[in-house]
Amino acid sequence: MKSVLITGASSGYGRETALHFHARGWDVIATMRTPRTGVLPESDRIRVLALDVTSSESITAAFEAAGPVDALVNNAGIPSIGVFEGTSMARVREVFETNTFGVMATTQAVLPQFRERGSGVVVNVTSSVVLGHMPLSAVYKASKMAIEGFTASLALELAPFGVGAKTVEPGACLSTNFAGRATEGGSPQDLVPAPYAAWAKQAMEEFTGQGLFTKESDVAEAVWRAVHDTTGQLRFPAGPDAVRLAQAR
Predict the structure, then answer these.
(1) Which end of the chain lies in a sparser environment, N or C, as judged by fewer CB atoms within 10 Å?
(2) CB under 8 Å to 3, separation ≥6 — which residues?
(3) Which residues constitute the domain of residue 223?
(4) Overall number of domains in the chain
């Protein structure tokens, strides 16, 4: 029986991906910074482990507890919405610590077992912001673009060992609490300084008025396809808005 380790599995895409793989017979190691009961159903094929992707000690402990896995899904991430001028460098570093360096650190932790076994796949969940230009997302997009480039080069490094690396690019999802956390690290006035206010309001109205949004199940299905892909496809847009952007690109 195959097993998958998923980071950021307490809610949203991560939780839905855990349920998706479990329903299809996989063993699931669902990790989260602060494990909570009741987030996932009780099952002998689901284990919940603590994992803070910004802590090397936490990463080591989680992978030791998890044991061998067949797939790693790097889903943990934090959002950031705001004008760059109004975003503190402390917030910029916080976003990169999780979205970029955290992904690299967990990936590095799993690679030895994948390489030695000659199989395995890393799936990095990025965002549709990498596919198009979106307002108020400079820092978030930068953190995700870094992982797009990282994954593309990583795929070349791992191919001789039979190991895969993929990205899943979710569109905007209104049903998760991800967007609700996007303004952490500053007040709305700080994140959108007055000179930008009119532009930001119009830009966000145009963006949210598109009418195409992503469901959590779209992302879980895209991760499933990425894990099982044998064609060499690198990027998997998830959700109608992401697919539209990918096609336009």
Answers:
(1) N
(2) 26, 27, 28, 29, 66, 68, 69, 70, 71
(3) 3-248
(4) 1
